[in-house]
Design goal:
By secondary structure, the chain is of the alpha+beta class. The protein has 5 helices and 15 strands. Among the domains are: 104 residues, 2,3-Dihydroxybiphenyl 1,2-Dioxygenase, domain 1 (Roll), CATH 3.10.180; 47 residues, no CATH class. It is globular.
C-alpha cells in the first residue's frame, strides 16, 4: 500500500496544515487533490461539503475508522512543537501520541525507524482477524498480529514495501464509500485486475484517471475502497 487518502471539506486549508504544520513532502496537487509522500487529500464535492459543519476548535472525530500515523525523529519534541502551533494533542491513557487536524481527523505520531519518515495508515474494523485474512487472500502478507483474551485486536499487513495497520474498535458500515480510501501504486495494474476481478467486489474497472494513473478500484470486506494505480 503506497497511499492513504482522506476526504476533506476545505482542501486549501487542510493542504496547508499537512504541508506546513506537519511538514509532509508535497508531490503533486490539483484543484481537487493534493498528494504527499504516502498520503493524499481529496476534496469532498462542493454540494456535500456545504452541508458539513466544522466546529472551531474542531471536535476530534474519535469514531473515524481511519487514522494516519506519521513517523518523526523525536516524538516529545514534535508534540511540543505542534502544541506551540496550537494543534490539539489529546492525552491518551494508553500512552500513544495523537493530534487533531483542522477538520477533526485524528492522526498519530510515532518514533521514526532508520528508513526515515513514512505514513502508515491504520483502519479500525469490527473483526481484525477476518480483515487480515481477507487482505491475505488478495496477496497481502500478514506481518504481525496481537491478541487480547483470544481475540485478535491488531494486525499489520504489507504489500511490497508498504504497510497497513488494522485495529479493533471499528463499526460495521453500509456506506457506499467510507471516510478514507487506500491507494496502492503498482507496476502492473492490469495483472492485478485480471487476478482480482472475479474474486472481489469491483467498484470501478480499469480506467485512466485525470492525474495520469491507470486505476482499478475494489471494495474490501469492510467497504473501504482500495485503488490500484499505475502511471500511464
Amino acid at each position: 500500500m503506497r497511499l492513504a487518502m482522506l476526504f476533506v471539506k476545505d482542501l486549501p486549508r487542510m493542504a496547508a496544515f499537512y504541508s506546513e504544520v506537519l511538514r509532509l513532502p508535497l508531490k503533486s496537487q490539483s484543484e481537487t487533490w493534493v498528494e504527499f509522500e504516502g498520503f493524499a487529500l481529496h476534496a469532498i464535492p462542493a454540494a456535500i461539503a456545504a452541508e458539513i459543519e466544522i466546529l472551531s476548535p474542531p471536535a476530534a472525530r474519535e469514531e473515524m475508522p481511519f487514522k494516519p500515523v506519521f513517523e518523526v525523529e523525536d516524538v516529545a519534541a514534535e508534540i511540543e512543537r505542534l502544541e506551540t502551533l496550537g494543534v490539539d494533542i489529546p492525552r491518551r491513557s494508553w500512552g500513544t501520541s495523537d493530534g487533531v487536524d483542522p477538520e477533526g481527523s485524528v492522526f498519530g505520531i510515532l518514533a521514526a525507524e532508520s528508513r526515515g519518515q513514512t505514513v502508515v495508515p491504520m483502519i479500525h474494523v469490527p473483526d481484525v482477524r477476518a480483515t487480515a485474512e481477507w487482505y491475505a487472500s488478495i496477496g497481502f502478507q500478514v506481518e504481525g498480529t496481537h491478541e487480547d483474551c483470544g481475540e485478535m485486536s491488531w494486525a499489520s499487513v504489507s504489500f511490497g514495501g508498504s504497510e497497513i495497520m488494522i485495529n479493533s474498535g471499528g463499526q460495521p458500515s453500509a456506506a457506499e464509500r467510507r471516510e478514507v480510501d487506500l491507494y496502492v501504486r503498482t507496476g502492473d495494474v492490469e495483472l492485478i485486475a485480471r487476478s482480482l476481478r472475479d474474486r472481489v467486489e469491483v467498484v470501478t474497472d480499469l480506467y485512466d484517471a485525470f492525474h495520469g494513473m491507470r486505476e482499478f478500484i475494489i471494495r474490501d470486506c469492510n467497504r473501504f475502497w482500495i485503488t490500484f494505480g499505475q502511471p500511464i
